[in-house]
Amino acid sequence: MNHRFLGLPFEWWYPVVWGIPYPIWTVTWTILGLIVGSFLNVVIHRMPREESVVTPPSHCPHCNQRIPLKHNLPVISWLWLRGRCRSCSAPISPRYLGVEVLTGGIFLLTWLVFGAQQPEVALALSLLFAGFIAATFIDVEHLIIPDEITLGGVVVGFLLSAVAPGLHGAETAAQGLKASGLGIAVGGGVVYAVLRGGKLLFGRQRVGLEGTRRVVFHESGLILPSGEIPYWELFYRPSDTVRCHGKRIELSDRCFRDQSVEVRLAATPAELRIGNESLAAEGEPYLAVETDRIDLPREAMGLGDVKFMAAIGAFLGWQATVFSLFASAVLGTAIALVLIALGRQQWSGRLGYGPYIAAAAMIWVFGGRQWWMEWFSWPLR
Ligand SMILES: [Zn+2]
């Protein structure tokens, strides 16, 4: 053991750490988790809206009144104010309470499992799980995981692997960094391979356009008010269809009104249906549709998940990414089956893939790793 922390050998820190009774550390760690949860609420709300997570200080989204520290205590304030803003009484989502309790609970669990033997590993894992919570809530609401979380996670995971090589079952900083680098490459690589080649899971995404807007099928991609989506992301199987109801449909040489539009560019020949009329899409250089919502064939995974899995590899190593890929597919299928049984299958198309990956990686940390090490005897470190 030649770990160092803040430049000092770990042995130097033991009396500092263990001079304080273990239960006090446990309580401190849980409270820290609640405070981190409170910060995650800010991240979940602001990061996908590209607002700073630091300034301005917390304010009520309804009346803009600044929330003083004494009314911004995790859990306690929400319960004390019964989920309402102190100045305008507007309800504050129970999600705020839920995220704080969840983060505190996960910090506590991580500490109880890893804290006594490897406090530095407990610290690094708690940070990873905090990232999972933010990624999950943002992905469910916005179907994206911000780069700050995924690419930030890659960098932080790599650096922490030097401080806490125990994350990878390694002894030295150099071994930790090597395992982390391999995890980043394999994690990003396998998801990218599935995304481009396998098309393992798929769904459909309905995009509301906030009023009637103009969408254009351009040479190489679909232009939505929110930006351009390249065709290779939309059309892979012949059956992949972009659907909408057009209030006004413009081709280069004619116009339609109030017709359904279906576009299948991976079909041979590429197909364009307007109402009951089927046209060869090849011959149409231009198509613009005014519509208020559009259905896109959606890959269950996106480039955000490639970066997300790379971050998991940075923290947990390459085996964790392979395990998480398969375990998340199993979880996703199981949940889809439950939703179908409940007659709620339309919900499954609404879920991004990130939450399944995060859940699978947590299963890895709290048992999957053990299982893997027992079943696969080939050298893995
Ligand atoms: Zn208010």
In short:
By secondary structure, this protein is α+β, with helices and mostly antiparallel strands. It is 50% helix and 18% strand. Helix 2 packs parallel to helix 5.
What's the order of the H and E elements?
Answer: EEHHHHHHHEEEHEEEEEHHH
Q: Give the spatial strand order of the biggest sheet.
A: 5-4-3-10-6-7-8-9
Bound molecules: zinc ion
Distance between the termini: 17 Å
Total number of beta strands? 10
Rg (CA only):
24 Å
Integer average pLDDT: 85
Walk me through what this model shows.
The strands form 2 sheets. Strands 5-4-3-10-6-7-8-9 form an 8-stranded antiparallel β-sheet. Strands 1-2 form a two-stranded antiparallel sheet. The protein has a domain of 94 residues. The protein is 50% helix and 18% strand. It is an alpha+beta fold and 381 residues long. The structure holds zinc ion. Zinc ion binds next to loops.
Keywords:
381 residues, alpha+beta, 11 helices, 50% helix, binds zinc ion
Write the layout of secondary structure elements.
Elements: E1 4-5, E2 8-9, H1 10-18, H2 22-46, H3 76-80, H4 94-115, H5 119-142, H6 147-163, H7 173-198, E3 202-217, E4 221-224, E5 227-230, H8 231-234, E6 242-251, E7 255-264, E8 271-274, E9 277-280, E10 287-299, H9 303-316, H10 318-341, H11 354-375
Helix pairs in contact: 2-4, 2-5, 4-5, 5-6, 5-11, 6-7, 6-9, 7-9, 7-10, 9-10, 9-11, 10-11
Bound molecules: zinc ion.
The site of zinc ion has 8 residues, from loops.
